[in-house]
Structure formats: C-alpha cells, structure tokens
Design goal:
- The structure is a homodimer.
- Chain A has two domains: 23-340, BirA Bifunctional Protein, domain 2, CATH 3.30.930.10; 354-439, Rossmann fold, CATH 3.40.50.800.
- The first copy, chain A, contains 16 helices and 16 strands.
- Chain A has helices at residues 23-42, 56-60, 65-70, 88-97, 144-160, 172-181, 187-194, 197-211, 216-226, 232-241, 247-265, 331-340, 364-375, 389-399, 409-414, 432-439; strands at 46-47, 53-55, 73-76, 79-83, 106-115, 127-136, 165-171, 273-275, 289-295, 305-310, 324-330, 354-358, 380-382, 403-407, 417-421, 427-430.
- In chain A, the strands form three sheets. The first copy, chain A, has an eight-stranded mixed β-sheet with strand order 1-5-6-11-10-9-7-8. A five-stranded mixed β-sheet of chain A has the order 13-12-14-15-16, sandwiched between helices. In chain A, strands 2-4-3 form a three-stranded antiparallel β-sheet.
- In chain A, α5 (144-160) packs across α11 and α10 (232-241) packs antiparallel against α11.
- The two termini of chain A are 41 Å apart.
- Residues 1-7 of chain A have low confidence and may be disordered.
- The interface between A and B is large, with 99 and 99 residues.
C-alpha cells in the first residue's frame, strides 16, 4: 500500500520469520489449536505452561550444534537469558524442579510459542507454536505408552480432517543394533544423514555416507536396510530375516512389533500407522520408538507431528531416571502451509451472532437487549452509528454476522424487535421470547 | 528439598519474577483465562495474536521513562529486538499494518504474555499474562463504546465470582480542564502524583505536590477536588457546582455523566460502577474516560482491570487517526494473589473421568474401551501397571479421578466391565451401554 506520508513512520511489518494473522485466520488457527488441546485432554494429559525465558545454561545443557546457534540469547543485568527453542527442555527442567509434587506417570501437554533464530527462509518461522504431549515415567515407563502417542496423533489428525495421513513409526534400537553389528563406531552423524533420505533421496544419502568414511560394504548394507518396504508384517519379517545377532537390534524389532500391535489394537487403521525404517529423527536424545506424521496429499510439508521415546529426560537437571515418550505438532508451519494451499479456508469472521441497530436516538432498548442476549449465551454487539443503518449493514456484511435486530420508534411502541435474517432476507417483528428462540 | 547429589546439576527454579504452576493450579488458571476469553467473545471481540518479539524501535516509540528501562532488549544479527511489555503497543502496530484488511470499529481481544524486567519484588512478575480488549475506531469512536468496557469488566468479574468489586470511572478531561483553569502548565507529573493517592494517602500526595512547585492555593484546590465523594449523582452535582469555566472540564463532566448513564443502562448495578475522581492512570496516552477495578474484599491487590480512552492509538506508525478505548486484566498477578489468599482453591486435578485397569495380561479390551469412551467424549486413561491394582488406585486417588473400570478374566468372559465409583465406593459389573451411561 503506497502512502507518501508514511515514510517518517516506523516500519509496522512484523520481523522476518515472525507472523501474525488477520482475525478470520486467527479464528481458524484457534479452532485448530483448541481441537488439539481437546484431544490431549480427552487422553488425560495435564496442562503446564513454563516461562518463555529461561536461564541460558538450562537451555544450553540440552541444545547442541545447529540448535545452539539458533537460540535467542542475551544478558539482562548479570543474568544470561535465553528464549526457549522447544517445549521439551523446559519440561525436563519442570519435572526435575517439581518432582515431589507430580504424579507419575506424568502426562502433560503444553501449547506455546518457541523461538529459533534460523536463517530466514520461505516456510520457516523464528517464532512458532508447538503443541506437545509427553508421558514421563519414574525409573520405568511401560512400552504401551509408546503406542498411545500414535493413537493420539491419529485421533487429532482424523478430527482435523486434512485428508489421509500416515504415522510412520520406527525404533532407534534397530538402527543402533545394526550399526553395532556392522561395527560403526559413531552412529550420530550417520543417523543425521539417513534422516535426510526423504529430503535428498537415496543417491545423495549414499554420497553423504561415503563422506563419513564408511566401507562400501557397510554403505551397501545400510542402504539395502533402509530400503526395506512392505506391510507391517512384511517389514517385521524382513527385519527378522536379516538375522542380525545383536541384542539391541532384536529388542528394537520386538519393541516395534509390540508398538504396532497395540496401535492397531487401539483402532488405528493399518493405512494410517506404518513402519518406516528410513526415519531416524535428527535429535540425538531419542533412544527407542520414533514417529513422524505425513499428510498424504501434502507431502512437501514434511512431518507435521514427530516424536519418540527417550530413556532419560532430565539427566542434566536431576539424578532421577525419568524415561519418557512424546510428540510435538509444529502448528504455525502446518497452518501457514495449509492456508496457502487453500486447504484451510477461514470462514468465520466473528463470534457475534446478532448486531443490534437502534434507529432512533434511544439506546436504552438496545443496551438492555444486548445484556439479555449475552446472559442467554448469544454473542451480541450494538451498532453505535446513530441511526446510520446503511453503515451498520455494511459492518454486518463484512463480518458475516447472521442476524440484525432493528430497534426503532415503532418497535419501542409495540414492545417488539425487528429481526432480519441476513442469509434468507426474512424480516419480522417479534417479542422478546420469540426473538431469543429465533436467534439461538 | 535436600538432595546431596544435585549440586553439580543445573538450577531448575524458574528465573526470579517468572512463574510456573503445578498442574492443578494450571487447570484453575486456564479456567479463569477461558472464562475471560468467553466473555470477550460474547461481546463480539475478535482474537489477535501478535509476536512476543518486535523491532526495538516499534516498542520504544511508545515506551518512556520507567517502562523503557524495563524492556528486555537485545541484538540478534544486526537487528535490535525487544520483548513486548504490553499488548497495546503491538495492537497499534497491528492496526497500522493491517489497516486495509480490518473492519472498523475494530473490536479485538488479545491474551498473552508480556515482559517487564522490573526490580524483583514480592507479587511483581517479569513475565505475566495480560488479557486485553480494545475497540478502535476510524477517525471517530462513539462515546457509547466507553460505556461498554465497564459493562464487560462487570460481566467478567461477576462470572469469576471473587466477591464484590467496584469499577471506578473517571475522565481525564476533568483533570486537564481543572489544571488548565488553575493555570498548571504541565499536567503530566501532577497526574502521576495524584495517581498514587490510593497507595500513599492524601498527606503524602500533598507533600509530593509541594515538590512540583505549585502554589498553596493550587494545591488546596487540587486536594479538595480529588476529595469529592458521594453517589454518582452527588459527585456530578458537586463537579458542576465547582463552576469551572473551562471547555475541557465541562466536556469531561458531561462525558462522564453520559458514560455512567449508559453503564447503568446496560444493567451494571450502582454498587459496582462508581465515579472515582482520584484515579488518573499513570500512562500518559489516555485522553478521556479512564477505569480501574478493585476487589472489595482484597483491596491490597490494587486494580485488577484498568484501561481507558485514547484519542490516537497508532500515531507513531500511521497518519490515520485511530481513537480507541480498552482495558486490560493482569491475570498472572491476580491469580497469584488470590491463590495465596486461598480465594482460588485448585480442585480439579485432571480432565480424566475414568481410569481403565486391566487386571490380566490382556490389554486388548482396555485399549478398545479407551477408544470407545473417547469417541463418546469421555476422557479416559489406561493404567499400564501390569495388574498392580494398588498402584493404579493410588494414581486415581492422587489425581482425583472419579471412576475406575477393572477389566479381568471374569469381565472378559462375561463381556462386562467392573465399574467403581470412587466417591460412593459402589462397584458393579455393566455391559458397555450401561457403562457409558453411568460414566457420562
């Protein structure tokens, strides 16, 4: 928008990588966020809400490599501060801090903004919402909890109705066992390469593996392993057929088998939960089950919900052993992408159900009626346009308000209200009881 | 909690001035926040959600004095960043930025965290929730909007049920007009002193006024003015009786009279909305109506909801004239204080209505039942304790879960579920249809 006078004024665009929505988009966003929250509560997860700012050392204890560079970090007074870059590290600190006041297994959800000063890039956000669930156990956490997470993911995305999706499930122990059987010393960099399979394809992954100074034999075995496909049963059979005599590998396969069995037992259809041996999740702290979720119609969005099992959540903060399993939805990116693709179409402009328009100087009736309507749970607004009905109707039109009540001299005299249904054009005078029925 | 091994571990307490709640407290907090949100929507306000981080110049344009010193400000790359210290300045920027896409009068609410690096002090927070509403007009905004805000405040606090409260209403023009009639050049510092009346009392205020180099005559008139009390009608009569021939003063009195008339018209009882000439609101940008709200039983909390009218919201960002009126609830402090006083008693531990306890090795029935219950809208959890019923019952007890379903061999054989009502101790076997009825 060109505005010659605006030059001296301060720039009003949000910072690059930060986003804000128009009200109708915000309503659509909130509807999705509330739906996720509702499902989390349906599964008995408890809400927590930790500070956005933490002591820098709290966050740095768990961050590393790329993440550390991205942290918004600064000093105020003599305290080193940092903005949280995820909701998992604050959870770890929270559980360590409030250990004695929590009931285990501790099932918590958190929905909040996190911050990563990434290089500006299309579709990347520096401030974004994460919606996290985690189940944290004391010393032990039954494997059946791992199976609950895909069930929750299924319930959420089924309800959100963005078309078919697949929850891809794997187990880190299978990788680790394989590497151990192949005598690969450091599996970390290797897994990070494999994790890129979806993004860069098998030939690029092979190239990157070569850079890691692996033998041709090792690379071949790894590549043929990650190429295993089929139904859940077929994949499990092929894994067993590899006949790898490594304890971790064997545990990983049987954990994966058990998790899949339970996920289907919960009622998740086989199309929606599959084994995908190619997923590895870049983050190093996962130790068992890992998940990713992809929307079948929009594969370019990447994983919309990822997570996994970690053996020891809070080791930087406490000596208590706290194993956990969880998942996170990156809601800002998901919403942004689906909005751009036209999958999410904001169609609610306001919560207001009725606009009251006094057409005389008397506002008494409109004010009293507004209070009555709101007491009955009907969101109402009053148009203070001093009888300019046309202006009021334009407001109704723009905000898509379904009903208008006109209150003029005749109505006041006859103790009625003129109700107009905007959609049908119908217009009738009603007494209060009838009016309430018509609107609600 | 003493833990000899913890020394090497990282400190897990939140930063001073930052707070986090235990799950039951968080549920109580969220209930209040949702109630406020619901009322805002009942009045037709639209949600917006702006970034926590802004360009420093955006925030500094509107901050001044004490506020500026409190801003969390830092540099990332070559950008000067700052964390928002309120939700009003971001609103101003938002309205300037999205002017062409908004419908005026623009009624928006925002609920979010703001940041002020204040000196640590009991009951002061450096991160806290504000719940804001504002009505922003284009060029003009009818005075009737001013009266809507106290009506909303009334509705909110009536619903929250923290006992009686008073919304104190004043108008800045009355002060300004008085000062102009008394030939006081700079009213800013004077108002800031008067604003402290409630905190420091009349004699301290008088002293501070003396420091402002006012004449004894001026001080006397000011003090006797701010001492005016009585019913709404009596106060208005006394104001008129002062016979001050200043245009602003006269406008202020008639605006105040009109606002009070409308507030009562909405149905706010006279006990709950009163004129209080002593309130001035420290912030300089208010230009007309101003509000504060005090809980009668807890006066030491101070104002729990304050706001007012400003003639030109976004003058730093746009040349458009955008008058507005709004109010803000400082929710974190309010909650914290009422929690400490025992007015808010967290009594909900979890959303879970029923815990399913498999007492055999078979988890099939529990998993299927969990899905059925959740599909019917009944929040359910499964106890994965491998038949350790005692452990399950302790979990139920701690989280105050109302129902338990035991699923053992007998139940599986007879296709029933053993339902235990924790409150009554009643225990019966039911088939699925009956079970659903009993729990929901």
């Amino acid at each position: 928008m060109f505005n010659p006078f605006k030059k001296q004024k301060i720039e009003t665009k949000p910072l690059s990588g930060f986003t804000e929505l128009l009200p109708d988009e915000q309503i659509a966003f909130n509807t999705i966020r509330d739906s996720v929250k509702q499902t989390y509560e349906m599964f008995g997860f408890l809400p927590i809400d930790t500070p956005v700012l933490e002591r820098a050392d709290v966050l740095l204890a768990k961050a590393g490599g790329e993440t550390e560079k991205q942290i918004y970090q600064f000093t105020k007074g003599d305290t080193e501060l940092a903005m949280r870059f995820d909701l998992t590290v604050p959870l770890a600190r929270y559980v360590a801090e409030h250990y004695n006041d929590l009931v285990f297994p501790f099932r918590r959800y958190a929905i909040g903004k996190v911050y990563r000063g990434e290089r500006a890039q299309a579709g990347r956000f520096r401030e974004f919402y994460q919606c996290d669930i985690d189940i944290v156990g004391e010393v032990n956490l039954d494997l059946r909890n791992d199976a609950e997470i895909p069930n929750i993911i299924y319930t959420i995305f089924k309800k959100l109705d963005f078309g078919p999706f697949t929850i891809r499930i794997n187990n880190r122990k299978i990788f680790n066992g394989l590497f151990s059987a192949l005598s690969v010393a450091d599996s970390g960099p290797l897994m990070q390469v494999i994790d890129k399979l979806d993004k860069i394809g098998i030939s690029e992954v092979t190239k990157e593996l070569e850079n890691l100074s692996l033998s041709t034999d090792q690379i071949e075995k790894i590549v043929s392993f990650i190429a295993i496909t089929g139904t859940t049963e077929e994949i499990l059979a092929q894994l067993r057929a590899l006949n790898i005599q490594d304890e971790q590998f064997i545990t990983g396969v049987s954990e994966l088998e058990e998790v899949m069995r339970l996920v289907y037992q919960y009622g998740v259809p086989e199309d929606y939960a599959v084994i995908d041996l190619s997923i590895a999740r870049g983050l190093d702290y996962y130790t068992g089950t890992i998940f990713e979720t992809k929307l079948s119609n929009y594969p370019d969005i990447g994983s919309v919900c990822s997570g996994g099992r970690y053996d020891n959540l809070a080791s930087s903060y406490t000596n208590k052993k706290l194993p956990g399993v969880g998942a996170s939805i990156g809601l800002t990116r998901l919403f942004d992408q689906l909005l751009k693709k036209g999958v999410i179409i904001p169609n609610v402009q306001t919560s207001t159900r009725v606009l009251l328009v006094p057409t005389t100087d008397s506002d008494k009736e409109a004010l009293t009626l507004a209070t009555t309507l709101r007491e009955k749970g009907i969101p109402a607004e009053i148009s203070f346009t001093n009888g300019k009905v046309k202006k009021s109707m334009s407001y109704v039109d723009k905000l898509n308000i379904p009903f208008v009540v006109l209150i003029g001299e005749d109505e006041i005299a006859s103790n009625t209200y003129m109700l107009k249904n905007i959609k049908t054009g119908e217009q009738n005078a009603w007494q209060i009881e009838e009016l309430l029925k018509k609107i609600s």
